[in-house]
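Quick one before lunch.
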Amino acid sequence: MVYKKKRTIITSPGLTELPPLAPDAAGLIYDYRRYFTYTLGQNKYCHSVKYFYKALALTVRDRLMERWKKTRYTYIESQCKRGYYLSLEFLMGRTLGNAMLNLGITDAATQAMHELGINLEDLAEAEIDAGLGNGGLGRLAACFLDSCATLQLPVMGYGIRYEYGMFRQRIVNGRQIEEPDHWLRDGNPWEQERPEYTQRVRFGGRSEKFHAENGELRVRWVDSRDVLAVPYDIPIPGYRNGTVNTLRLWKAAATDAFDLGEFNAGDYAESVATKNEAENITMVLYPNDASENGKVLRLRQQYFLASASLQDVVDRWVMVRKGDFTDFAAQNCFQLNDTHPSCAVPELMRILMDDQGMSWDTAWGITCRTMAYTNHTLLPEALEKWPLPLFGQLLPRILEIILEINARFIAEVSSHWPGDIDRMRRMSIIEEGDVPQIRMAYLAIVGSFSVNGVAALHSQLLIQGLFRDFYELWPQKFNNKTNGVTPRRWIARCNPGLSRLVNEKIGEGWISDLQQISRIAALADDREFRQQWHDVKQANKAQLSALVHAKCKVDFNPEGLFDVQVKRIHEYKRQLLNILHVIHLYDRIKRGDTAGWTDRCVLIGGKAAPGYAMAKLIITLINNVAGVVNADPAVGDKLKVAFLPNYSVTAMEVICPGTDLSEQLSTAGKEASGTGNMKFMMNGAITIGTLDGANIEIREEVGEDNFFMFGLTSEEVDALRGNYDPNAVIACDTDLQGVMNLLRCGHFNLFEPGLFDPIINAICSPHDPWMVAADFRSFVDAQQRVAVAYQDRERWIRMSILNTACSGKFSTDRTITDYNNDIWHLKPMEIGSVEL
Ligand code: 7LS
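Model of the 7LS complex:
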């Protein structure tokens, strides 16, 4: 291969394994002091908690290292089938606490730090979140990695090492301000650079035909501007099982000779600029979770990830199997996290044909038996399309391959439905128009053997709507894999009080087999257990209150109902419906309609895409309503409202244990699954929600008596479209009139008249796709049932226990087991005592 540098393997008999590191407190203290003193150069006068954190991170990392190497060698030596999770996002959050939990050294570390006069939790607070994702899709990828390692499946994550993760959000004057998240500024003790596995990724140039030495006509990609992809590996420990898998993140770097021509011509500045252009590829995570498609840098990121990762896998294959690809498809599986990495389909074709010399048919046979695609949304604005000319400029060889895939695919459609031109046009990977577009979802479907949605309703809607034609052609490709979340982070780590209580009653088995948690259901009728459950919840609410006080300067009284909605701000998620209910409660208080009142503390948090004006305006409305409500002495403890700035994985770890009521308000049919809903359920919150995404399955599991359902169904939403009349809805509902009057008279924007007009107009528009007004009545009635239920303390605690007890299905261990049984077919690998 022209590009591949030879790797020299040096064997040194002197480098045999050291004895295993002590996992007890004394061993931890010994290593900690060594790192603190010698590696970090600190002493007793150290005043920065960062050094305390770093010394412990290095100490813990050492204990992962040996297992990590063993895992790697076990996979290589056994030549087992491997899975790869390709994702533009991995929203990992903090690592230290999770690593200690999974290694089983949390107690020892707590004791060790205590002996050194340090509080472990204070120290853990110094870690900056790895925020390499926008929301649900990125966090799902992180939970999946935890479950794969816990199930001992040989799965590797591939992603991008963004220099700047998800922006930090500040609220100034009620408005969202974005600040860069330079999360790597103090270094990252969890990553290991692996320059020896650097790959080269091509951009630009053109493709050219040539005759190979054996006379075959071949294609090569020439005159390209290449970028290096340098891998950084992050260890992913399983739960107390010796497995440590790998998340490999790619950083872009300029080639060594990035600019020789320009250097020689004396244009130093130009050549450095070229270097920047290369390195910009991995500079920043795009902060959108839908739309803003068409940015060329985003396409560069996508191809960069797909190309570097596939070359890495193929290189490893060639090294071990000496270029025999017979078993490649049987031994490798790539799961595409939405269409974002779907360039993997044509890129694998390119590698197999251009680099490995295969024919089209052989390469295609391999490609479409190794790729599997997960769809995460039905929203049209999140369905990726790339303008064909732009694509061709940046990736000429890849476009050529896509066009060939499409030509052959259309021939198949035509033979299946002869003469059905309309269907061919509908199904074509290339959408016709002034500027033709490449439909990435169609490319992913055509190139994959499996296509799945992320909750039962979502998968059903996919085959009835968006992918109907494809389902008719290939019904066997389509399946559902309902999402989950990892119980390690989302119960064991974030809710130690609850974990202790559950452990006392049923042991610790639930941590790696969440179905076992159903055994606490029998205790829901035990008065003493209910009291203990309540005590845990109250302590968690006190901690959440402290967070809200620190970040929002609002006082939440833990006796009130903690009513929480945290997620990305989006119209379809209907934070607006939530705040309309808050305004209605405020209206009732002001009217003196407070008989049998339940005190409420409403918390809303989430980031808006920087270019999404309506979402930003909704944030401002929430903040302004909070300002008015909290300042009104007539309201007092009856109602408090806070907008929590900078919602993150770490914030959720405090929020979900302290929540009573989980708000899942999406317009039915719009939220593919939701995963926050599952975190809340596991931590004993009760859901108020529409029949959407995984809410439906949550309600099925916990029973309708333990779930507050409201709103139109997805069929009703579709049926109403076209004759929706929100003004008539408002005219029939005095409560909604009261709310609209307060909005219209500028009660929440006295100094900025007209500020919220776009919101008022959206609610009143017959074209409102989210049908906020349509669900208002049903929502307010459901909230009233919530308020009544909360007053019956014993009933509420019982519901809370049952929600946790019935959450077993929503562990990603179940989700991943389903992926593995139906799609990947990987064998769990015990990590034995391999010779290193
Ligand atoms: C994105 C971009 C985009 C989710 O979290 C779309 C985009 C873009 O369209 C365009 C330009 C630049 C950057 N970044 C990042 C993510 C997404 N799409 C989605 C789709 C679904 N992001 N989801 C959520 O996934 C969860 C896990 O399955 C579901 O529980 C949740 O219902 C869904 O909304």
